[in-house]
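DATA SHEET
Item: assembly model
Revision: 1
Owner: S.N.
Input lines:
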Amino acid sequence: MARYNAQETEKKWQTFWDENAIFATPARCNDEKYYILEMFPYPSGRIHMGHVRVYTLGDVIARYKKAQGLDVLHPMGWDAFGMPAENAAIEQGVHPSKWTWDNIATMRRQLRSMGLSYDWSREIATCSPDYYQHEQTMFLDLLEADLAYRKESSVNWDPVDNTVLANEQVIDGRGWRSGALVEQRLLPQWMFRITAYADELLEGLPTLDQWPESVRTMQENWIGRSEGMQINFSLKGRDDHLTIFTTRHDTLFGASFCAIAPDHPLAKELASNNPKLANFIDECSQLGTTEAALEKADKVGFDTGLVALHPFNRKRELIVFVANFVLMNYGTGAIFGCPGHDQRDLDFARKYGLDVLPVVCPHSCAESEFIVTDKAFTGDGRLINSEFLNGLSVKDAQSAAAERLVQENQGATHTTYRLRDWAVSRQRYWGCPIPVLHCQECGIVPVPRNELPVLLPEDVEFDKPGNPLELHPTWKFIRCPRCGSPAVRETDTFDTFVDSSWYFCRYACPDAETPLDAHALNAWLPVDQYVGGIEHAILHLLYSRFFMRAMRACGHVEFDEPFTGLLAQGMVCHETYSDAKGWLFPEEVEPSQGGALVRRDNQAPVIVGRSESMSKSKKNVVDPETIIGTYGADTARLFILSDSPPERDIEWSESGIDGASRFLQRLWRMVNEPRVPLAAKDAPMPNNVEGPSLVLRRETHRAISDVTNDIEKFRFNRAVARIRELANMIAGFECDDECGSRVVREALETLVQLMGPMMPHIAEEMWQMLGYEPSILNYPWPKPDVGLIATETVTVAVQVNGKLRTTLTLRVDADQGAAKSQALAEPSVVASIRGRDIRKIIIVPNRVINVVV
RNA sequence: GCGGGUGUGGCGGAACUGGUAGACGCGCUAGGUUUAGGUCCUAGUGGCCGCAAGGCCGUGGGGGUUCGAGUCCCUUCGCCCGCACCA
């Protein structure tokens, strides 16, 4: 029996597609365009299953849209700057540039072996000066538009490695490489003014109706707009005051303390002559910079001895604490605590023995009976213990309190955001140089545009701790272009999120001399469908949305929203393995005789960790090249599409890949050795198709309708199931008369076209075997015959008290009265009713008849 | 901790807007073909009771709304993603 040879056939069609430029981006004339984009990969070394998943998803959409006759732009590139390249340099002594470009070469080859429909002529790599020089131009534009500025901000400093650490490099407060205790250090940083667009970014969300609701909600919460008040509390014995932000000024009479952030200027000032406080602040900073760590930590405070006076009653004195749960970068970095109506404040008050005075009484509760014990009341109610606010609702009390505070000049309404400005400085080598310099005389000077690009020097060493740009003997030192005085280059490079905030625009005009070409942008942008991991739901997508608005302000683009549709695909997860020396790849591990996992090389025991999203840092990745080498790309693609819907996380397992492979063999045999002889290619369809042939025809056209619908809605797992059903139907078809031959040809041709976007190589091969000229993509997507889809009968469930008793086969839209009597005559129905009175009968036409007794 | 998800047979999952739970596949069981075989074909496969007809139970746990709940509401548990310097 002949077998389908995936290796040979896949190579054949990949060569054909290349030589005939099947995936060249069409020049836009007047046809409808479709820009399909998957998030570009970081060139970490080799592709992993997460890549296979996302690029397969995108490719199915791209090929389907092309078959629908749209002008498709489907590009690919590399998010090529970033930390791992520098780690490789330190650990393996390879230059980041070489490491990155080698990885790109490997991964490009691997992606090509998947048979993805990219226009490779538009490939970009962010580490190439061809790309990053334009980013430097745009930065100068942002600087002129006052959307970029410099500000001190706190970073994780490793005093031994002399370097800034990413949060993930800080483990239990220590540097991952040096093990040194990490310090918080203030460094001047370049920032992007994303907060200037907070409202616009918020307002844009409802227009993104082709995004998942969950992502929009996450962004909304991330921006975190809240309307409240800034209130000034006088400080006893001082001339200045403490400004706090609150959204609950209605509970002001319930205040029992104030708290400021450990890095609040006032805290620093008080600490200068209070060593204990200085020590406390120091301890707070040990927690690091991540919000999760701060929020999870025990709530602790330090009594500064300072006293704030209640704005409505200056006789009431409130202790000012420094507290670890108050964040400097939210609001004003200072709060008043109302333990009765805020859980965190309540926990804090109980811990430090502070008053708990309830000021909002629930509507359902008498004032005398309302007490707060260990649960703060945050709902609506009426005000109590609050002088002029007594009796008011929360909302009315807020207005009244606000009015009084404004009147007495003690506060003002204020809107604050959780969103902070975007820190884009990185004290690292492998990134886009920030094109400014620091002159002894003039201060910060932008690099003149005619001197761009500022190229990253290649001759750097990684043998000393710290940023190699900082230590470079010549690159760093320069003369000021304005005054000629000695100056140094900015040695910070950009956060790689900057690179990925506009790459999708550059694909439209990869060779333009300016950053972006208006004509090309208007032709292709925005991206119609973006596909990528849900882990990017907030930062990357929000930064890109901001960047488009910033670019619009600078005249580079004419639209706001970069991505019309978003498919946020779930993670590919896998168990993690480790031993004393660190993480292990799954292929370094094998089951021992006892069943426990051991190292393949020395049989040493392995710790099996829980399943997590595949990531290079934890080595819990499966090598797709092995899978593709063994089974072929089509099988890998089919497998990855088959079971789970795209949005869901999938657990990688080897089981099932054999099944996918068998299905491919089966499909191929159906055309290679058809059970029923196939009619000639152009033979007309007889007009008296009936019996089993009619059944197959109907099934074929229903499959067209269902699969089309499923692909449109990205339910590829269902589309695969539907294709399998059609294949099963064809395989069981035995009618070998003239009519059957014609119908089975139609069914097979349909099958091949429907599976084409998912299994493109074997589909091209089968299409050719059916007598057609390649490429299958040049043939229009099949359309269902509506007359054949319509059904004549339906199966209706018959229930008694909601429990299924039997089913009836009825004509569609059958007479309800007749259906009712037929149902009541059913023996199983009669038996279930057992002579009881029928109270009512609910009939849902074509679905259910429910007898209630 | 906060925000967003998610939970259905032995396994991955299906079930459109509240209307026959388990499509499709993996695995497993039995039979058959050819073969030395992992190939291929046929049948079966949620659990319990029953010779059978059939019955009862069943969508993480508990409660509720409804003629009817996997689907809606409340509550609770597990897991996943994000939390601003991983990408």
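QC remark: Residues 794 and 815 of chain A are 13 Å apart (CA to CA).
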